[in-house]
Task: inverse folding
């Protein structure tokens, strides 16, 4: 009798293991789908599209304006945080003003990396992400379950996929996130010095031209 009960218990225990193996992924996917574990691609698209549509009152006049401004700031911050982690965490950097790309290394970055001067919106990277969706890039069924960074990385890779490799090739260090949310180079960016020098030279030239114009006017 005891032997029979032991066999039955082993049989039930074996079936429970299979049930648990099947149930755990189902529970995980359900929690992901309903945005409990993290922000999925679909959730990000909805949230950040709404964030780009909200009009933030510059000077709140009443409680409703205050709440609207707070809502705008919170959503914008969340959308931009996720987008930046997807891009810079993957090894991307952004190019600057093409006029300051005075070395072969900087010209390579201009060619292969996203340009913050004339390609990415000044309001934030998440505006570009939303714009890509509006332009025809599609979300997939997997984006209902996977974290938002996967679909952002997919769109960035599609347009500038060679950027991380080129960045490493020309000697520009990776960007790392600081406690306050800023992204800075993990070590000194030697190729960036030429860009800074070119920008300063142009600024000085403009100041000299302005002084000459003032002198002539007198």
Result:
């Amino acid at each position: 009798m005891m032997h029979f009960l032991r066999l039955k218990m082993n049989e039930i225990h074996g079936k429970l293991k299979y049930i648990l193996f099947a149930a755990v992924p189902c529970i995980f996917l359900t929690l992901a789908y309903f945005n409990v574990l993290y922000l999925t691609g679909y959730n990000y698209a909805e949230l950040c599209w709404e964030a780009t549509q909200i009009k933030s009152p510059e000077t709140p006049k009443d409680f409703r304006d205050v709440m609207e401004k707070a809502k705008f700031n919170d959503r914008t911050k969340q959308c931009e945080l996720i987008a930046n982690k997807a891009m810079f965490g993957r090894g991307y950097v952004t190019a600057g003003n093409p006029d300051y790309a005075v070395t072969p290394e900087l010209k390579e970055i201009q060619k292969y990396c996203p340009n913050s001067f004339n390609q990415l919106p000044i309001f934030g990277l998440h505006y570009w992400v939303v714009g890509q969706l509006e332009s025809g890039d599609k979300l997939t069924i997997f984006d209902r379950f996977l974290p938002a960074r996967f679909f952002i990385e997919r769109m960035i890779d599609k347009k500038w996929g060679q950027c991380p490799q080129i960045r490493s090739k020309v000697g520009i260090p990776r960007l790392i996130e600081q406690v306050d949310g800023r992204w800075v180079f993990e070590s000194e960016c030697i190729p960036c010095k030429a860009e800074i020098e070119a920008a300063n030279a142009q600024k000085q030239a403009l100041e000299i031209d302005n002084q000459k114009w003032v002198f002539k006017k007198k």
Summary: The first helix runs from residue 2 to 33. Strands lie at 175-177, 183-185.
